[in-house]
Design a protein that fits this description.
Number of strands: 0
Shape: globular
Number of domains: 1
Helix content: over 70%
Largest sheet: none
Radius of gyration: 18 Å
Strand content: under 5%
Distance between the termini: 9 Å
Number of helices: 8
Order of helices and strands: HHHHHHHH
Structural class: mainly alpha
């Protein structure tokens, strides 16, 4: 890869990194200082109570559990073993740093801010609300796997499918958390921002592949 193309690629990752950081900070400040986002949170939470049905709720719970602690942990272990077995140590390092760092970050904010979950939640959870751990980790898993596999599946339709999955999976999980009223809208937006910020930060310093010109 030529140096100009390499710099352009890094610039694109840096833009994503700044976007994720700014999104997270804006949401965080809105929560800390009672910003207008809180009004959006309350309106969406109230609207979701009119949107819920038993059949749909069962499907949504199934979807959200696909990115729960147990499912994410199993996937994390399986992928880590796969990268180690294939001797793809750069991929393994990138994946471990992305997953473990994001886990520490969202838990740090959860237990520091201790934000309460919506009153209209469909079931009780013992942990705090901000940011959404499900959304953060869905973003981390999708984006980190995109960076790892995008060059190995070839160009064209396969890469397009990978990109669509990378975009749709975090958004889907974010929707399930808001639908179930276990998170405010600001929680899932912050989770998206935090996930994007952390994975791209790791990529800038520890990319999953050797880049020519680096």
């Amino acid at each position: 890869m030529s140096m100009p193309k390499f710099r352009q690629k890094k610039d694109g990752i840096l833009f994503l990194n700044l976007f994720g950081f700014i999104l997270f900070v804006i949401i965080l400040l809105s929560i800390l200082f009672d910003g207008p986002m809180l009004l959006v949170d309350k309106w969406v939470s109230l609207y979701m109570t009119t949107f819920q049905t038993d059949p749909l709720t069962k499907k949504v719970i199934f979807l959200t559990d696909l990115n729960g602690v147990i499912a994410s942990s199993i996937l994390f272990v399986m992928l880590s073993i796969f990268f180690w077995y294939k001797k793809r140590y750069l991929d393994l390092r990138f994946f471990l740093l992305s997953f473990s760092g994001a886990t520490l970050l969202f838990n740090l904010f959860k237990f520091t801010l201790q934000r309460a979950r919506p009153d209209a939640k469909l079931f009780d959870l013992v942990t705090y609300s901000f940011p959404s751990g499900h959304t953060t980790m869905a973003t981390v898993l999708a984006l980190s796997l995109y960076f790892i596999f995008r060059k190995r599946i070839g160009k064209g339709f396969s890469q397009l499918l990978l990109l669509l999955a990378t975009l749709l999976w975090p958004v889907t999980i974010a929707f399930t958390r808001v639908y179930l009223n276990v998170h405010w809208t600001s929680d899932v937006l912050a989770g998206l921002g935090l996930g994007i910020f952390w994975v791209t930060l790791v990529y800038l310093f520890y990319p999953p592949e050797r880049e020519a010109g680096s």
